[in-house]
Amino acid sequence: MNKFEQLGLNESLLRAINDLGFENPSEVQEKAIPLLLEKDTDIVALAQTGTGKTAAFGFPLIQKIDAENKNTQALILSPTRELCLQITNEIKLYSKYVKGLHTVAVYGGASITEQAKEIRRGAQIIVATPGRMQDMINRGLVNITQIDYCVLDEADEMLNMGFYDDIVSILSTSPTDKSTWLFSATMPQEVARIAREFMRKPLEITVGHKNSGSSTVSHEFYLVNARDRYEALKRLADANPDIFSVVFCRTKRDTQAVAEKLIENGYNAAALHGDLSQAQRDAVMKSFRNRQIQMLVATDVAARGIDVDNVTHVINYQLPDDIETYNHRSGRTGRAGKLGTSIVIITKSELRKINAIERTIKQKFEEKSIPSGIEICEIQLFHLANRIKDVEIDHEIDSYLPAIYEVMKDLTKEELIKKMVSVEFNRFINYYKKNKDLSAQKGGEERRDFSAGSGAVRFFINIGSRDDFDWMSLKDFLRDTLGLGRDDIFKVDVKEGFSFFNTEAEHAETVMDTFNSMHLEGRKINVEISKNDGGSNSRRRDHNGRSSGGNSNRGARGERRSDSFGGGRPPRRDGRDGGAPRRKDSNSGSRDRKPRRSN
Ligand code: AMP
C-alpha cells in the first residue's frame, strides 16, 4: 500500500497521483486528507503556497463529490485570477479519471456569459475569485444554495485584497450546514473573524509554526547605503548566475524603474505590476515560467498569484511595511520541498525591522556582505568553466571546425582553455576592478552624498534649450514630473545641451530615481549630482549635450556618479554596454517623443 493509499484515497485519485509522479504526501496532505475524508468538518489550515495544499483539499473534495449529480457541490474561492486558473488546472489533473466531474473557473477579465454557459453544462466544482463570483450570484448565473463544501484558499490574501464583503455575502448565500475549509498562510485578525463567524468548531491544522515562514527558506540580509541598493541587486544577480528570482519593490514606479534598468544593463528581467494590461501580465508570467526571465520585478499585489516552482531567490529590494507581506514574499521560494533564499537589501535605518521579522517567523537571518568584485569574478569563472564542460554540441558547427582548428592550431590545450575562459573573465574583472565594495557599516553615520553641507543638492540634467526648454518651462517640467511643490526646485540654469537645478536633499533620491529611468526623444535622460552647490558660478563640466545622452552609465566624465542606479553590467564582448543577451521585454516601452515616465 503506498502512502497515498494509506490516507484513504480511492483508485481513480491514486492513478492520477501516480501519473503526476507524487511519491509521498506532503505534511499538510498527511494531516488534512484523512481528516477531511473521514468527517464532514470545518477546518482551518495554516499552510503556505508550495506546501501541496491544493491537493490537501483537492483530493478529498474530488473523492467526496458525487460526479453523477450535475449540481454545483463545491465552491473554491481564491484571491487572484492566476491562482484561480492554477487551482482549476490542478483539480482537473487530479480528477482526470473521475468520469463526469467538471470543474469550471470563474474570474474577472473574461467573458461572464461563457463562464455561465460552462456552469449551466454542469460544474460540480467552481473555482472563483470573490468579485466575479459575487457578480454571477447577483445576476442569477450561478446557484450555490446546495453546495456541500466551500474552500477559502489563501484567505489572508483575499482579505488583504479587500474581498471581506464579497466573501461574507457569498457565504451567506450558501447553506449553513456545508463544510468550510479555510487555508491561509497567516492568521491575522480578519481571518480569525471569518473563522469565528462563519465556521462551526473548525479543527485546526498547522504546517510548521503558526505565522512562520516555510522552513525550506533561509533568510539573509545585506546592509548597504541607500544609494547602492540597485548596484547591490546587480551584484547579487552576478554572484548567482543561475538565479531565478522574484524581486519585490514597494511601488509600481520603482518596480518598473528597477526592471527597466536591469533590462538595460543586460539582465533577463521584466516588470509585473498593476499598470500592465492583463495580456501584458500574462505574457510576462509565461516568459517567467519558461525561464526566459530570470528576474521578475514585482509589486506585492501583482505577485499575489505567482505560483511558480523552483524560484531560487526572493529579493526584497525594499522591505514591505508589514511582516505578513514579508512572509508572503518569501513563500514564493522554497516551494514543493525545494530550498530557497529570501534576501533583504537593507539600509541601516531599517535594521530593527529584521529583528521584528525574526521574532515573528522564528527564524534567524544571516547577515551577509555584498560579494566583492573579485568574488563575483571567481563565481563567474567557474560557472563559465562548467557551462563549457556541459554544453551540448550542435553539429551545425561541424562544417566550421576545420577552419577554426586552423586558427587555433598553434595553441596548446592549456593555452586554449586559458584564452577561452578569459574572454568572459576579462569582461567581469575589468568591470569590477573599477568598482568599490558596497557593504555599509552598522556603526557611525551613513555617508550621504546628497547633503553636502547646505542641505540643497545641485543636479546636472542632460536636457536644455536645444530641447525647447527655458528656465521657466524646465522648472515647470521638473516640478510636474517629480510631483514637487512650487518652491522645491530652484536655481534652474538652462544651457544649450544641459541644465542645472537645485532641490532640498530630501528630494534627491526621488530626482535620481525618476529621471534616470526616463527618455526624451529616444535619448536617455541623465541626471547627476553636481559637486557644485549652485552658487553663481557653476563649475564648468566636461559635458556636451550630444554625448551625454544614450549610454552614460559608466560615469566616465571624471565625476563620481552617486545615483542609486549606477553603472551597468560588465561591457559586452562586442564592446557595447550591458553584458548578457538582452531581451527587449514587452513592457519595457517604446521611446516616444515626450519624456516617458517609467511607472
Ligand atoms: P501548492 O501548495 O498546492 O501550490 O503545490 C505546490 C506544487 O507542489 C504543485 O506544483 C503541486 O503539483 C506539487 N505537489 C503537490 N503535492 C505534491 C506531492 N505530494 N509531491 C510532490 N509534489 C506535490
From TrEMBL:
Biological processes per GO annotation: response to cold
Annotated EC: 3.6.4.13
Domain Helicase C-terminal: 225-378
Region (Disordered): 528-599
A molecular-function term among this protein's GO annotations: RNA helicase activity
Annotated DEAD-box RNA helicase Q domain residues: 2-30
Domain Helicase ATP-binding: 34-205
Motif (Q motif): 2-30
Basic and acidic residues biased stretches: 571-592
Cellular component GO terms held in the UniProt record: cytosol; ribosome
Keywords associated with the record: ATP-binding, Helicase, Hydrolase, Nucleotide-binding
InterPro entries: DbpA/CsdA_RNA-bd_dom, DEAD/DEAH_box_helicase_dom, DEAD/DEAH_RhlB, DEAD_box_RNA_helicases, Helicase_ATP-bd, Helicase_C-like, Nucleotide-bd_a/b_plait_sf, P-loop_NTPase
Family under the similarity heading: Belongs to the DEAD box helicase family.
Protein name as catalogued: RNA helicase
Organism, scientific name: Flavobacterium beibuense
